[in-house]
Amino acid sequence: MPWASVFSNVLLPFRLARRVGAASRERVAEAIRSVGLGGFENAYPRQLSGGMRMRVSIARALVTDPDLLLLDEPFAALDEITRLALNDDLLRLWERHRPTIVFVTHSVFESVYLSTRIAMMTPRPGRIIADLPVALPQPRTAALRLSPAYAGLCETVSARLAAAMATH
Amino acid sequence: MSRAPRDKLSRAAAPLLLAVVFLAMWEMLVRAEDIPRYVLPGPLLIAQTLWHDGPALLGSLLVTLRITAAALLAAALLGGGMALVFAWSRLVELSLFPYAVVLQVTPIVAIAPLIIIWVQEPFLALLVCAWIVAFFPIVSNSTLGLNSADRNLLALFRLYGASRAQILLHLRMPTALPYFLAGLRISGGLALIGAVVAEFVASTGGTETGLASRIVEASRQLQIARMFAALFLLSAAGIAIYLLLDVLSIRILRRWHESATPEELE
User: Fold this and answer.
1) Same domain as B91, residue B24
2) Nearest beta carbon to residue A46 from set B153, B162, B261
3) How many CA atoms lie within 13 A of A5 on its CB side?
4) Are residues B115 and B73 in the same domain?
5) Using 50, 70 and 90 to split pLDDT, how confident is the model at B3?
6) Looking at the structure, do residues B171 and B236 belong to the same domain, yes or no?
7) What range does the domain containing B12 cover?
8) pLDDT(B266) > 60
9) If residue A69 lies in a helix (H) or strand (E), which one and from where to where?
């Protein structure tokens, strides 16, 4: 919401549930800190970069402690550096409460890095054609990106994807 | 950045210089051709008249401005309110909007005599006329704004189980605010025009009112300089209203809307 401060944006779920109180305000402040935006509570969206806006959206999604998060290409519009940083942040946030996250992406590397399970889909009609477990160690850190296991899995996923695209 | 002060200066100086040149040529033309003052008075004579009759004209201007302000306020409240009703009920919008258009396209000069006959109180009659003119831009702009809410945000609100009232209050109304203010700026000028037109009609019927009746009166007495002086005051008032609403709009939207934020933030 461009007309509201970062704090008001993250407070929105509570406001719509009519549960604005001291406790919810504390939760909002905590959610803003957890995505690394402490100090920007009173900033307006247009004063923030694309990556920071995405963090606000994530804080708003996390503030109610949901059991399920649906993220549809959340980092697609961001540059590579911001994207990698947000990947790591998302993993840290996930480790706290371990909600189920359904994360849609077009990036093979992102999918392998973030997930415990990859479901591959075909375009038109959208069907799941592969369901691959990702048996990489937790917690995942930037060092994993350089490991042979990670590279091998990325290769497997890419090959499966290429095969799937060829037959469709 | 270094060019900005010069830009600002020439932005003010260029039109002023043009005005001085234009007025000087006007004065010279009037003197050279010896044009009688009851056909075209020179700018110096008009300035003199403005100085001399100023206090009397200002009193009339105040009457006109009171009507304008009251009409604009009524248009903002009723126009904004009606747009909210439209946003709430599609059926009401479909049934009433065509009549708002009818109200808009009917020339105010044509209905003003009727209104002046029907509404006995002169101030109220003029207020109604000015309101009719000022009302439509606010309704149509606000309605457009209320229907322009971001689809993604709308989906987000629904996801959180927002009620219709909450969507209206927290999403559609903030979205509509810049549209409403744009309508208000258009209506500010229109309210003044509406008030003046209504005064013209009323004063031909003999009712003493604001600045327009001063103009009619002066034209009957062939006091052309006085007409120009009154005209000058009207234009100045119109510009003042526009600037006032412009500043108001920028102050309200400063923190978030593209139209009101400085470019350095980009």
Assistant:
1) no
2) B261
3) 12
4) yes
5) low
6) yes
7) 1-34
8) no
9) strand A68-72
